[in-house]
Amino acid sequence: MYPPISPPDLSTLIHETDLAARRLQRKLRLPAADLDDLRQDLLVDLICRLPGFDKRRGTIGAFANIVLRNQCSRIAIRHHRQRRAQGGTVLALDAPGAGSAEPLGCLLAETDGLAAWHGQDRCAAADVETRHDLARALADLPEDVRGLCAALGTCAVADLIGRDGISRSALYRRLARLRLELAMRGLGGRWDGSEAA
Using H for helix, E for strand and C for coil, what is the string for 10-65? Predict the structure, then answer.
């Protein structure tokens, strides 16, 4: 159960959320249509964190600023990660394709592959080459690192925490070592841009 919120406090939360959403929309260069979604996501997260508010430690506005700043950072990181995965652009299937008046969604066929639907310009030959390079690099890795790679292929990083008694910090150290091992084998850039990263 959430603590009761007075109308002035609610007004402060809404005002701070609106400012944070506008700032984030500008920084990420998102379309104006995304502003309401951002505002709603930020406000929901803020309301969910209200039980952690302590009046003795500061004002509701200061609490809102900290929570909103952290959530904006998480959204920005997610957004940049998606842009990187899409080759630096924002994918819109209803936007016209390059040199065409028709939307991208109408120009793509199911046979074009998943990469094309996500705006990536991967070709089959490049995919085969990447798979071959990865298989060669994985064969050269130590056994425990290969086990980590196999586990990452079947579940998310968050699911590995606590599995086999491994702590979060130990897992992230092993992931950093894995990235280094792959980078030393010439796969750093491609590894970071892949789905597994």
Answer: HHHHHHHHHHHHHHHHHHHCCCHHHHHHHHHHHHHHHHHCHHHCCCCCCCHHHHHH
Q: How far apart are CA 93 and CA 81, in angstroms?
A: 19
Q: Which two tokens stand for residue 65?
A: 């600023």
Give the span between the Cα atoms of 164 and 25, in whole angstroms.
42
Task: Tell me how far apart the alpha carbons of residues 125 and 106 are, in angstroms, rounded to a whole number.
Answer: 25
What is the pLDDT tens value at each position of the chain, 197 positions in all?
556 788 899 999 999 999 999 999 999 888 888 899 999 999 999 999 998 888 899 999 999 999 999 999 999 998 888 777 766 555 565 665 556 666 666 666 656 665 555 555 556 677 778 778 778 878 888 887 788 887 887 887 778 887 777 788 888 888 888 888 777 777 765 444 444 43
Q: Positive or negative, the Cα torsion across 17, 23, 24, 29?
A: positive
